[in-house]
């Protein structure tokens, strides 16, 4: 009887094992299936994201190279004549080295004639009016064109407007050397308030999730714009002294110079910013020869 009971127990255990085995196999199969599904979904996403980052970086690399050349371009003969005239006018002021008095020089007839000729469709009565007009419609269109190349031609006009507004907010925010890494919390709040939320209202969650990678990358590109121009302007100020360096900047890149000035509360704050190195600054000596 004991032998039969023992055999029955063995048979029962084996039957239980055999019944559990298909269940285990099924669960294992489901697990493998889930892994495969996740891989099918995530691997292409990561590959697409990687390719997207690569393409955007290539586009931005070409743009930044051209931007550096533009920011550091030497004055042509007509611009040098204007520079000499402005230096003469500056010499007639009581303190020709201060940013405030130099802005008065930029309100003089020779400089206003210069920027009005460049603007073509707009006439500015003084430099204060010019600052108040920043960013100009022409500058916004240039920014939109650049952003479209990065975001993609499928972006709707309303979305481009949101991105363009965000561009100027980022330029203003990062002018003092703030970065995505060192000021992460502040950046996240700014991103959420001025880009994510407006895009969600416009396109819904789908329009935001599809642009997550682009948001961070483009934000870093925007910050670099400030560094490029500050580097060129700081180099001129260091090479020629504040008065001449300042006037050279205003002549060589009038719109960008005025745009950056518009982000500051007054001429003194802008003067201080121009006179100090940016946090990622290279040595100005590298471009001195280009600016002669």
Structure description:
This protein has 292 residues and is mostly helical. The protein folds into 2 domains: 1-58; 72-292, no CATH class. 77% of the residues lie in helices and 0% in strands. The chain has helices at residues 2-71, 77-91, 99-106, 109-119, 127-132, 137-151, 157-173, 184-203, 205-209, 212-240, 242-252, 254-262, 267-275. Helix 2 crosses helix 11, helix 7 packs antiparallel against helix 8 and helix 10 (212-240) packs across helix 11. The chain starts with a helix and ends in a 17-residue tail after the last helix.
Task: Name its key features.
mainly alpha; about 0% strand; 2 domains; elongated; 13 helices; about 290 residues
Global structural class:
mainly alpha
Mean pLDDT: 80
The secondary-structure element order is HHHHHHHHHHHHH
Number of strands: 0
Number of helices: 13
The protein's oligomeric status is single chain
SS strand fraction: under 5%
pLDDT < 50 stretches: 17-43, 280-291
Note the main sheet.
Answer: none
Cα-atom radius of gyration: 30 Å
Kindly report how far apart the N and C termini lie. Answer: 110 Å
Helix content: over 70%
The overall number of domains is: 2
State the shape: elongated
What is the fold's blueprint, element by element?
Elements: H1 2-71, H2 77-91, H3 99-106, H4 109-119, H5 127-132, H6 137-151, H7 157-173, H8 184-203, H9 205-209, H10 212-240, H11 242-252, H12 254-262, H13 267-275
């Amino acid at each position: 009887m004991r032998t039969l009971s023992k055999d029955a127990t063995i048979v029962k255990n084996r039957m239980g094992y055999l019944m559990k085995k298909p269940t285990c196999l099924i669960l294992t199969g489901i697990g493998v299936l889930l892994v495969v599904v996740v891989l099918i979904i995530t691997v292409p996403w990561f590959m697409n994201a990687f390719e997207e980052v690569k393409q955007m970086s290539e586009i931005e690399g070409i743009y930044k190279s051209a931007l550096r050349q533009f920011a550091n371009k030497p004055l042509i003969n007509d611009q040098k004549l204007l520079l000499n005239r402005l230096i003469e006018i500056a010499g007639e002021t009581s303190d020709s080295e201060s940013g405030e008095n130099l802005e008065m020089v930029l309100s003089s007839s020779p400089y206003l004639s210069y920027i009005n000729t460049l603007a073509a469709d707009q006439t500015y009565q003084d430099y204060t009016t010019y600052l108040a007009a920043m960013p100009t419609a022409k500058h916004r269109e240039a920014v939109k064109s650049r952003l479209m190349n990065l975001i993609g031609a499928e972006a709707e006009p309303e979305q481009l407007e949101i991105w363009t507004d965000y561009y100027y907010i980022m330029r203003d925010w990062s002018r003092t050397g703030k970065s995505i890494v060192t000021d992460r919390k502040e950046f996240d709040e700014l991103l959420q308030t001025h880009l994510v939320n407006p895009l969600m209202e416009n396109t819904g969650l789908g329009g935001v999730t599809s642009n997550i990678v682009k948001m961070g990358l483009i934000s870093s590109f925007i910050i670099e714009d400030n560094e490029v121009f500050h580097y060129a302007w700081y180099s001129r100020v260091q090479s020629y002294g504040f008065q001449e360096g300042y006037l050279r900047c205003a002549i060589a890149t009038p719109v960008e110079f005025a745009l950056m000035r518009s982000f500051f509360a007054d001429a003194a704050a802008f003067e201080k910013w121009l006179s100090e190195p940016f946090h990622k600054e290279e040595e100005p000596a590298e471009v001195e020869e280009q600016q002669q």
